[in-house]
Amino acid sequence: MSGTGERVTIKDVAARAGVSKGAVSLAFNHKPGVSQATRERIFAVARELGWAPSATARSLSSQRVDIVGLALCRPARLLGLEPFYMDFISGIESVLAERSCSLLLRLVRDLDEEIALCKEWWRGRMIAGAILVDFREDDPRVPALQGLGMPAVAVGHPRLTGTFPAVWTDDASAVAEAVRYLAALGHRRIARVGGPADLGHSVIRARAFADTVRQLGLEEARQIATGFDEKEGARATRTLLLAADRPTAIVYDNDIMAVAGAGVAAEMGFTVPDDLSLLAWDDSQLCRITHPTLSAMSHDVHHFGAEVARVLFDVVNGVDTQGHQVPTPSLTPRGSTAPAPGG
Amino acid sequence: MSGTGERVTIKDVAARAGVSKGAVSLAFNHKPGVSQATRERIFAVARELGWAPSATARSLSSQRVDIVGLALCRPARLLGLEPFYMDFISGIESVLAERSCSLLLRLVRDLDEEIALCKEWWRGRMIAGAILVDFREDDPRVPALQGLGMPAVAVGHPRLTGTFPAVWTDDASAVAEAVRYLAALGHRRIARVGGPADLGHSVIRARAFADTVRQLGLEEARQIATGFDEKEGARATRTLLLAADRPTAIVYDNDIMAVAGAGVAAEMGFTVPDDLSLLAWDDSQLCRITHPTLSAMSHDVHHFGAEVARVLFDVVNGVDTQGHQVPTPSLTPRGSTAPAPGG
DNA sequence: AGCGACCTGTGAACCGGTAAAGCCGTAATT
DNA sequence: AATTACGGCTTTACCGGTTCACAGGTCGCT
Q1: pTM of the model as a whole
Q2: Is the C-beta atom of A28 closer than 7 angstroms to strand C?
Q3: What's the CA gap between A214 and A218, in Å, rounded?
Q4: How many degrees, rounded to 5, is the angle at CA A301 between CA A303 and CA A215?
Q5: Whether B307 and B161 share a structural domain
Q6: What residues of B are in contact with residue A262 (Cβ under 8 Å)?
Q7: Which residues are paired to A297 by β-bridges?
Q8: Is A339 within the bounds of a domain?
Q9: Lower CB density within 10 Å: C or N end of chain B?
Q10: Residues B180, B295 within the same domain
């Protein structure tokens, strides 16, 4: 991994402009101490020579880095499938770009690898901070990374994220809203197809779901934990619909599974929403391109990502930040939910 | 953007192990010149102190970087929607991770911004090389970046990519195969919903499509250029189906638009595939979760990404590489294609 | 004993910047 | 006139590694 050779450095620019390295540095960092004339001359020379300061050298001496890290620990094919992350990343980017900061991305296989990577990135001063996502109950990253002093922002409920400032959505309320909405439509048997059981937000949603169902006096609710992908979503839907006491409404933990569920329903001869109501989560564009369109608990994922990035900047800059909740996902009724059959 | 403070450096490790900085460096780079005993002592101390070499300092002095850059120039919402890029990125990552290299990602608004970014990244020695995607006809990046000496790999047909080593799929053949397949099913009026007209591969596909149609003696084909998103896909489909001489088969340039097209068809009362055959491109999981499932020109996007990364490594390491074609997308018939109505 | 080869390790130069102290001439203050 | 203030730039000391010439010590060989 070698460069081709003779690249221009600050010294060349300084020499050509007839000033010292220091002057060039001052000029390029828009600091006082250089006259306007000199400044312009320096910039002219830099342009002429095609010089830009070496980020490497700069961050070595200034102890500043313009890169933040994000490690994603999900199966590759799921990442491709689920619109959530790209949306989220683009939200992050929108804020980073403003500050001409870049995102260092790495897909990892497990949390141990993620921990090792973060340590390497941080100790190696490669990143200014990190974004941590997909928190689990008793997440090993909390004890492992907390002591590092690495600026980080955690995406997840504060209950899960230790001392890391958290940015999260109030999933419990959202789940409750979903259930209440379906109950209001007359549904008495509502099932839920959730994400991986070890994921923190799955636990939170599962609990809120059960609580709300009990509270509303609905029938005991069936919940199935899945791996978040369309195959498992389809299988879970099939299982639910084959049962004697099949539900009249199903809530999904993401949109992929909801779409898959709609397919299964059609295949099994159920009409959505007449026979069966479906409610998705996350609400990417995916929910709008199917027929019928999918009702969903929607939130602005792009904005979510942007907010996360903003909090990270605060942390990095030493601004005291507790993190905060972003707007709760709210119900967007579309074509896949309707009054319960025979209601 | 400051560090918290007293981080361990090579000097601390050297002192604690009773050797010089040089020895530690040699040990950590697995170079000869240090005895086994000393080596082990150094490693022990490093572990004890929690030290890892600073990537920044290392790359400054050794002129090596373990980061490659990727700038994506597409509207954010499309990136989230289209499974292609995440698949592609995960393929890239799979190869990078093996070499403990990371991916620097940035979303840009236009090619000028991308050019500026690449220059900055390269001159700033922040990246070892770059991956360039979405080539247009007479792409401005070719003249602008070619002279930089920056190792890069271009994703696109060599006709478009100047002197950059290219990795590409043979879209022309794939389009031809698609058309022949539909013709064999008895379709005489086949339309195509393509991507943005200025994108190089759109042009290639459009031309190949027209050629094949002519060659097979089919009716003059209607082609519509779109922005790749589901709205435009839906609109294009509607336009096609409203025409007096509506097609009996439509080929789409990605899967998003095909899914949207299927929705429009259903909404307009056409049954897929009895009244209308639909054929998607890229074939992400998306094609398998709809009903009917979508026939598609499928290729292994993950592998594509991996191959791109491999070529980039060759270029970076000075291995003489011309780049090469990856397997041509091949037809995967599913439920959305059938013999032409009344054929 | 003398010499070279080998092994292990040291020290200093360097990578390309930043930061802070210092220096010089002129203007404002007292 | 002497003192201070400041703008404008230079100098120098880092930042945390890598690299390379070279120094001692050990060993084998003549």
Answers
A1: 0.90
A2: yes
A3: 6
A4: 115
A5: yes
A6: 291
A7: A281, A331
A8: no
A9: C
A10: yes
